[in-house]
UniProtKB/TrEMBL annotation:
Subunit relationships: Part of the 50S ribosomal subunit.
Recorded name of the encoding gene: rplV
Protein name: Large ribosomal subunit protein uL22
GO BP field: translation
Organism: Afipia carboxidovorans (strain ATCC 49405 / DSM 1227 / KCTC 32145 / OM5)
NCBIfam families recorded: rplV_bact
Keywords, in A-Z order: Ribonucleoprotein, Ribosomal protein, RNA-binding, rRNA-binding
Amino acid sequence: MSKPKRERALPENEAKAVARMLRVSPQKLNLVAQLIRGKKAASALADLQFSRKRIAVDVKKCLESAIANAENNHDLDVDALVVSEAHVGNGMVMKRFAPRGRGRSGRIYKPFSQLTIVVRQVEAEASA
């Protein structure tokens, strides 16, 4: 026998994707996440495509994954998707040491982050 199926944490009109172990500081990742919060999915993809930040490639990949989850797993309409949440969390921090002057050493932190993107299907607004 298998375990009983877990209840879905998100509402029926939402889908999410999580990117873990991104090799960038959470502060820098949050700058890119701010770009796409609240935007339509197609517009957010276009913004990430032309962003000059290195991590925008990984954020775009995570957003595409969330859109694919919405389409394939939850039967949501891709054209009506909006990025409802894009939040950033801390990951692990690698600590390294580098030699400094006068026989001392300096700490170097190499932080990792994780990104959660939630897309929501919005109803088409009645244009009158």
